Amino acid sequence: EKARIAGKPIRVIVVKARQWGGSTCTEMYIAWLQLCHVTSKNAAIIAQGNKAASQVKGMYRRLLKNYPVSMMHDFGDSYSDDEVKIKGTTESPDISIIPQRTCEITIGSALKPESLRGLDIAFAHLTEVALWKTTDNNSPEEIVRSVVSGISLAPLTMVVYESTANGTGNFFQTEYDSAKNNESNFNALFVAWWQIEKYSQPLENIKEFARILYENKENRNVSDDRHENGRYLWYLWECARKSYDAGIVT
Q: Which of 10, 116, 125, 171 could staple 108 via S-S, CB 3.0–4.6 A?
């Protein structure tokens, strides 16, 4: 949003824990741009497989189901409350049209990238990129290039790579590191699991927890494979404390 307000291209790469809502947030932001800010600008959703891409697109459909038709038209235009808000095309089952905004949404799969080449899009949402596999004929780099190479570095354009982490040395990690080090046009965003409310629960005895945590803060030993050592738990506590002090978590 800072980039949009500043009149800059929107480029974000997100590493996040599961079930944070990164795909939902990205899709709703693209919808907001298409429905409220521009017309005739198309979007693409690319996932590891078509099923995953369809699930992400389903978020957009649910939004449109509850979105007033009146807000899809310019002020003063005539409209009908029972207008179709999204429909398919004869061109491809992977393409849908929002007729009121004269724009398209295309879903694609990293497993079948041939259908992605030559897309006329201004917005690209590439999800779970770290899970995309390299084969004899394709690589994540080639797929990304074919999808986003036609998107200009202009205001009101958007490219988002988002994924949970999956190993090191792959395309996604390389791109994230470049963004983090200010070596690319992308802004890096990292969302740790302990920043997400659903992964926390109340402590039954906070004093006992604090005592054990403090007394074992230098302990590198573990009792079994199902527990972490005290030194690592103290490190997590320090991360959480710093985030609390910075107002990131409450």
A: 116
